[in-house]
């Protein structure tokens, strides 16, 4: 690892906020925006394929992170599951790769996405996600910096968790995600299916009606909406 590049990244993480372990993931996001010339950045810790704790540099990053959960596709999930970077510099042309996520993220004003797995050996923690409003490739230097930043963040998060010093701040949408889980159980009973099929039905209804998965969950829980076995439409 290039010593100069590593030093630059360590300085950026340290300069982005007070040296409080509880704020460390947020400082990584701030450092990513500063160093890599992206519009926004997010850090997602994941269990299997579902986001757990999420940090975001701003509202744009938060909205895109929520989209990935709602639609169950996107660069963070690919990077985490496949163990390699998921790079899409021209998101508007990537509808075949992420048919639901791509147009929704473009609608938020995102032109390019770059996700890097947080992993060490067989340990996979999640992904570092970079969002840029303008489409276009990362430079070689930016790509190298992003890889080092992801490696540094992975090691530091593992160390902080081992010390019990990292206090995970759940996404602002965590409570809403819990309600999605509740609604999924209700739909599973309605359509006599497993939880995976029920969640797919909720996602499909949200996409078909151009509303968020969280709005659908609220309607289901309030019993204003019942998703039965009939085809969506």
Which properties best describe this structure?
Beta-Lactamase; alpha+beta; 2 domains; 51% helix; Arc Repressor Mutant, subunit A; five-stranded antiparallel sheet
Radius of gyration: 18 Å
Number of helices: 9
CATH T-level topology of the largest domain:
Beta-Lactamase
Structural class: alpha+beta
N- to C-terminal separation?
53 Å
The CATH superfamily name of the largest domain is GAF domain
| Overall number of structural domains | 2
State the helicity in percent bands.
Answer: 40-55%
List the SSEs and their pairings.
Blueprint (H helix, E strand, L loop, with lengths): L2 H13 L8 H13 L3 E8 L2 E7 L2 H13 L3 H8 L3 E3 L12 H7 L4 E9 L2 E10 L7 H24 L10 H18 L3 H14 L4 H9 L12
Antiparallel strand pairs: 1-2, 1-5, 3-4, 4-5
Description:
With 233 residues, the chain is of the alpha+beta class. The chain has two domains: 3-163, 2-Layer Sandwich (Beta-Lactamase); 174-221, Arc Repressor Mutant, subunit A, CATH 1.10.10. It is 51% helix and 16% strand. It has nine helices and five strands, in the order ααββααβαββαααα. It has a five-stranded antiparallel sheet with strand order 2-1-5-4-3, with helices on both faces. A hairpin with a 2-residue loop joins β4 and β5 (123-132). α1 (3-15) crosses α6 (140-163) and α8 (195-208) packs across α9.
């Amino acid at each position: 690892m290039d010593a100069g590049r590593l030093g630059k990244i360590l300085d950026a993480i340290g300069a982005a906020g007070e040296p409080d372990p509880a704020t460390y993931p947020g400082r990584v996001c701030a450092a990513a925006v500063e160093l890599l010339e992206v519009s926004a950045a997010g850090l997602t810790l994941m269990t299997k394929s579902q986001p757990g704790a999420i940090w975001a540099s701003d509202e744009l990053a938060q909205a895109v992170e929520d989209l990935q959960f709602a639609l169950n596709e996107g660069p963070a999930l690919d990077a985490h599951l496949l163990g390699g970077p998921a790079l899409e510099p021209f998101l508007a042309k990537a509808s075949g790769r992420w048919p639901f996520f791509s147009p929704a993220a473009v609608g938020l004003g995102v032109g390019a996405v770059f996700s890097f797995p947080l992993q060490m050996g067989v340990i996979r923690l999640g992904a570092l996600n970079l969002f840029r409003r303008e489409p276009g490739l990362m430079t070689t230097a930016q790509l190298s910096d992003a890889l080092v930043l992801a490696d540094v963040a992975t090691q530091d998060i593992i160390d902080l968790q081992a010390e019990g010093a990292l206090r995970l701040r759940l996404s602002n949408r965590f409570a809403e995600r819990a309600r999605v889980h509740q609604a999924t159980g209700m739909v599973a009973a309605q359509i006599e299916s497993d939880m995976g099929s029920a969640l797919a039905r909720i996602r499909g209804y949200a996409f078909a009606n151009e509303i968020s998965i969280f709005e659908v969950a609220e309607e289901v829980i309030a019993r204003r909406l019942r998703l039965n076995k009939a085809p969506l439409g």
